[in-house]
Design brief:
Elements: H1 7-11, H2 16-30, H3 39-60, H4 64-79, H5 83-90, H6 92-99, E1 125-127, E2 138-147, E3 157-162, E4 182-186, E5 192-198, E6 203-204, H7 210-218, E7 223-224, E8 227-233, E9 240-246, E10 265-266, E11 272-274, E12 277-279
Parallel strand pairs: 1-5, 2-11, 2-12, 9-10
Antiparallel strand pairs: 2-5, 3-4, 3-8, 6-7, 8-9
The protein binds 3,4-dihydroxybenzoic acid and fe (iii) ion.
3,4-dihydroxybenzoic acid binds next to helix 5.
């Protein structure tokens, strides 16, 4: 892989707002959206959601000024391409909790808006694509993929993607090489894998779009703790989408997306950490 872009070149061009706008385009391109949701289910869910909004209006005596501020803001969420960001920050963690509630294996976490399928295949001893002068603390992340009985799963797929040391994702912030800090790792005969990368930085929700405007207007903070994103899968097993965090890192206890679970916090020592994934049967 030849990657000639240096981090110094790309950093100056990266703006937060572009990440959000790209997320809408990628969602429309990459995600298969179910065309079949029954009329009964649509009616039930839409009625309850709308009724919940009615309750809020009544309980808080919402004014026309506030109603129009909401309208203006919702219009802006679309204009800024920030629906994927908004939904993944404020709703997805509950969806994940509901959908994965009966799993026995590795805990899941939200996918977020920045997954891209078909990242380069890197074998079982992998170095993620990175720039010549990629900033950040080197990290060797290794482990094993197992079934519920403790047997290693050979040829399991470990898809990994994460932000750089400035908190930006390739293909969403401009000027970063296409597959930077993204890869598809395949486990060896024992289910083992080794991934050489850097530790990502905490991620800030873009401050210059609609989501940032809400955060500022409400006086919240805009941060997620540093995290690795993963999708682990193998034939005959359920795919798990999850994230791993770093013990003691900023915002681990105060994630705006509420996606941290204690089982998903790593404690690297001397730049290395081991974490094993356990897959539920399909
Ligand atoms: C968002 C970004 C992330 O990197 C993530 O993991 C979850 C959500 C967001 O901006 O919505
Ligand atoms: Fe993320």
């Amino acid at each position: 892989m030849t990657q000639t872009t240096t981090q110094a070149e790309s950093r100056t061009e990266a703006t937060a707002a572009a990440s959000g706008a790209n997320a809408t385009e990628r969602f429309q391109r990459d995600k298969k959206v179910a065309s079949q949701v029954s009329q009964e289910r649509v009616s039930t869910l839409a009625t309850e959601l709308i009724t919940a909004a009615h309750d809020v209006i009544r309980r808080h005596g919402v004014t026309y000024d506030e109603y129009n501020a909401l309208k203006a803001w919702l219009i802006r969420v679309g204009q800024d391409g920030e629906w994927p960001l908004f939904l993944d920050v404020w709703l997805e963690h509950v969806l994940e909790e509901v959908v994965n509630s009966d799993r026995e294996g590795t805990k899941g976490s939200i996918e977020g808006p920045y997954y891209v399928p078909d990242a380069p295949e890197l074998g079982s001893d992998a170095t993620l694509p990175s720039r010549e002068d990629e900033k950040g603390t080197p990290l060797l992340f290794q482990g094993q993929v197992r079934d519920l009985q403790g047997n290693g799963i050979p040829a399991a797929k470990v898809e990994i993607w994460h932000a750089d040391d400035d908190g930006y994702y390739s293909q969403f912030a401009p000027g970063i090489p296409e597959w930077n800090l993204r890869g598809t790792v395949t486990t060896d005969e024992q289910g083992g894998f080794r991934i050489h990368t850097i530790q990502p930085a905490p991620y800030q929700i873009p401050t210059d779009g609609a989501c940032g405007a809400l955060i500022a207007a409400a006086g919240w903070h805009a941060w997620r703790p540093a995290h690795l994103h993963l999708k682990v899968s193998a034939p005959g097993f359920q795919l798990i989408t999850t994230q791993l965090y770093f013990s003691g890192g900023e915002y681990v206890g105060d994630d705006i997306a509420q996606a941290v679970k204690p089982e998903l916090v790593l404690e690297p020592r001397d730049g290395q950490v081991t974490y094993d994934f356990v897959l539920d049967p399909a």
